[in-house]
Amino acid sequence: MTRQPFPLAHLVPPDLRPYLLDFHWDVAVLHRLDLPTTRVPLADLAPHLDLPFWLYDGRPFQVTPHQVAADPLRYHEQYQRTMAADLDHPLDVVRRTDGRLTVLDGVHRLLRAELAGRVVVAVRILPWEELDAIAVGG
To answer: CA–CA distance from 9 to each of 52, 85, 105, 107 (Å)?
Structure first.
């Protein structure tokens, strides 16, 4: 399969590149996959909370989840999304070839879990070899 490149690749900050997929993928397809749910220590995913995943002032990749938590008035839209996040729904992650887990969908839930004092989070793990299942073809 030919994968479409990630549409915002030219805007991705260098520190975020190891965490984002370099191709366009479909979150709705990801949600439909029949993946088992397991639990992992929140600490295994905590580095995501210091990366600028989120939109601010109409621009992508401007604010980290921890910045949102530290200043909920300034980043009220992202904070509201975080506080509304459903912790009963597992995060979707991919296990990279080096063993690292990367969040595909659920960074707001991850921050919500941290704010709630959780030490483990429920995740659905997509194996790296199955990424074509969510890829948007070119």
So the answer is: 14, 27, 18, 19
In a domain, 1, yes or no: no
H-type helices in 4-131, by residue range? Answer: 27-32, 42-45, 65-70, 76-84, 107-115
Ranges assigned E (strand) in 4-137 = 37-41, 54-56, 59-63, 91-95, 101-105, 120-127
* Overall number of domains in the chain: 1
No. of H helices and E strands in the chain? 5, 6
Distance CA 72, CA 99 (A): 33
Indicate the pTM of the whole model. Answer: 0.92
Identify whether the C-beta of residue 113 lies closer than 8 Å to the C-beta of residue 87. Answer: yes
4-35 pLDDT, tens digit each:
777 777 788 999 888 888 888 899 999 999 99
Is 24 contained in some domain?
A: yes
